[in-house]
Amino acid sequence: MTRQPRTHGQYIQPAAARLQSMAASLPATSRRIAQFVLDNVSEVVHMSVTELAEKTESSEGSVVGLAKTLGYTGFQQFKIALAQDLVAPVQFIHEDLEPGDHADTVVRKVFASHIQALQDTRASLDIPALVRAAEAIRRARRVEVYGIGSAASIAEDAGYRLMRIGVQARVLVDSHIQAIGASLTGPDVATLTISHSGSSQETLTATRLAREAGATTIVVTNYGKSPILAFADIVLFTVARETNFRTEAMTSRIGQLAVLDALIACLALEDYEASSAVLRRSFEILSLKRY
């Protein structure tokens, strides 16, 4: 079992959270380095790549490789991120629920976990990737949105909000329809797949088929290595740690909703007048549904 990262005061840092998210999927050597870093953050920021390699009985190449796997240009940039975390720590920590927790403790832990997920996701979000995703959707003739299980409701929400700003969107949450729809896409279509694990067979298959058909594939998934990344043209990462009592809980969905909210806001602002006109019209239509 992977141990929890050491905290400083009452904080967990975004860089450490990113490392924690990937730890379980790393090869043995990288996992050993990762665990050492998580257990000794304040010491690692003062180490050279050679010192860390010696401490973890690994090679310098393995240390640098881990940093690059995490999305950094090298060990030095990774150290800077860790050091920044220590200087300006995030104000909440992930805490798992325990039997016997009083209702007020449950509320505090749940809300803190949700806030942490948002802060970690914001810190890790690739802004250039967000811009590319918005551009791909804006260029596309239509957008297909895929989601299965707990991601289905997120997919439905994303499709609805895309339509509200004038984007031709189709939401597919049945695995058979996803596969058929994906195979019938093409270069003028963009697909948006929501998958926390990145390993759900149904959405992975749909994303693969869409890419093979020539569509631009955009994936919203939790940070880490997962099979779906092999078929994604653009990846928007969330950072949400599931806990024993809340597997596939709202924590992951809050991160997904925030990323999609930012994406749709960027889309709307690209063509503000047109988006505003569509929104006004949709408000007028929906007003007929209200007393």
Automatic annotation (TrEMBL):
Pfam families: HTH_6 (PF01418), SIS (PF01380)
GO BP annotations, alphabetical order: carbohydrate derivative metabolic process
Domain HTH rpiR-type per the UniProt entry, residue ranges: 13-89
Keywords for this protein: DNA-binding, Transcription, Transcription regulation
A GO molecular-function descriptor: DNA-binding transcription factor activity
Domain (SIS) ranges: 133-273
Protein's name according to its UniProt entry: SIS domain-containing protein
